[in-house]
Amino acid sequence: MALRLFVYHLGQDDPKKCTALKLGRFGLVRVLRRIRDIPLGSVVLDPFSEVAFSPSDRVRVVKRGLVAVDCSWVKAEEVFRLRLRGVSRCLPFLVAANPVNFGKAGKLSTVEALASALYIVGSMEEAKILLSKFKWGFSFLELNLARLVAYARAKSSREVVELQRGFMSH
User: Fold this and answer.
1) Would you say domain 5-169 falls under CATH 3.40.50?
2) pTM for the whole thing?
3) Are 91 and 108 in contact (CB under 8 A)?
4) pLDDT score recorded for residue 39
5) What pLDDT shows up at residue 21?
6) Are 73 and 13 spatial neighbours (Cβ–Cβ below 8 Å)?
7) What does the alpha-carbon distance between residue 103 and residue 155 come to, in Å, rounded to a whole number?
8) Most buried in the list 3, 30, 94, 120, measured by CB within 10 Å?
């Protein structure tokens, strides 16, 4: 992988279903166990952030890295209230394809979140590599391709939010 990918792993879900740990076993991400190990200045994917992730985040992702937080959706609000190092960004509207949350808007697995961000910043091949490790991985791309392509063409976070509104209204 050309980009530095990290997962802050809290161990709250079934390890057999954990996409982050599987990516770690393949050497595609570095699994972090302590909050202080999150690289300063990296982009942290945070579903509660008020700033949308966009192609304009590419420079920061290339320089500092991309971080996903692997936690239970049940405890997500509590986890993201912690002071995480890095710059917080929320992924735009996407639909999950993972077996646990299939068809649910926004309930992405860690691999779906990382692959989405990679796709949006123009690293489509890296996104496909991550998704290829899961039987259902390419279903995620099929479900979201039009949205991902549109988000990847956006110029700013504001433009991503406008596109998102359009997708959500359909």
Assistant:
1) no
2) 0.92
3) yes
4) 93
5) 94
6) no
7) 28
8) 120
Tokens read off for 33: 């166990």
DSSP string spanning the chain? --S-EEEEE---S-TTT-HHHHHHHTTSSEEE-SGGGSPTT-EEE-TT-SSB--GGGHHHHHHH-EEEEE--GGGHHHHHTS--SSEEEB--S-B--STTTTT-BT---HHHHHHHHHHHTT-HHHHHHHHTTSTTHHHHHHHHHHHHHHHHH-SSHHHHHHHHHHHHH-
Determine the Cα–Cα distance for residues 20 and 6; give it in Å rounded to an integer. 9
CA 67 to CA 62: how far, in whole Å? 12
Task: Tell me the domain boundaries of the chain.
Answer: 5-169
pLDDT on residue 13:
73
Give the phi and the psi of residue 7 in degrees, each rounded to 5: -130, 120
What is the C-alpha to C-alpha distance for residues 148 and 124, in angstroms, rounded to an integer? 10
